[in-house]
Amino acid sequence: MATRLLLISDTHVPQRARRLPEQVWRAVAEADLVLHAGDWVDLSLYEELTRRAPALLGVFGNNDGADLRRVLPEIARDTIEGVRFAMIHETGAATGRQKRMDEAFPDTDVLVFGHSHIPWDSVSPRGLRLLNPGSPTDRRRQPAHTYLTAVADNGQLTDVTLVPVLPDEVRRG
Predict the structure, then answer these.
(1) Is the CA virtual torsion 69, 135, 16, 97 positive or negative?
(2) Of 7, 21, 139, 144, which is most buried, counting CB atoms within 10 Å of its CB?
(3) Which domain holds residue 60?
(4) 173 with 29: CB under 8 angstroms?
(5) Under which EC number(s) is this enzyme classified (predicted)?
(6) Mean pLDDT (10-residue bins), the chain, 173 residues
(7) At 48, which helix (H) or strand (E)?
């Protein structure tokens, strides 16, 4: 049975946005599992996602305080429809990332990470898929606010799509 995934990170609520854009909440409702790669900033967003998402897997980021670190791990791992996922907020510099992550996550098929706010989709020499969804609320120097959707099914990750958040949605957030 296929599992629809929503990958988000670096939401920084309420520092960068008062709340998540409605477009993201619609994507939460359409997903079977939400993966959040850290920098929530406030426990209230974690609590709201816990209530609204069918299932949630998350990690804490460097901007998350003690309250979030009490309920979230630094690294999360789960096998979803035969795909071995790991998630961490920060992976270091882009240069050498694939090699470092191959060594750090040898028993992983897909590594989800955040921190840079820069969308990333690559495959390491070993075959590890590295995914960063960017940020739905703080694009920094990127052309758009973003998140990722994907489908895990029968040991494969398919339909990986970088979704821009519409500018009107960001302003309402």
Answers:
(1) positive
(2) 7
(3) 3-172
(4) no
(5) 3.1.4.-
(6) 96 85 96 98 96 98 97 98 98 94 96 96 96 94 94 98 85 60
(7) helix 43-52
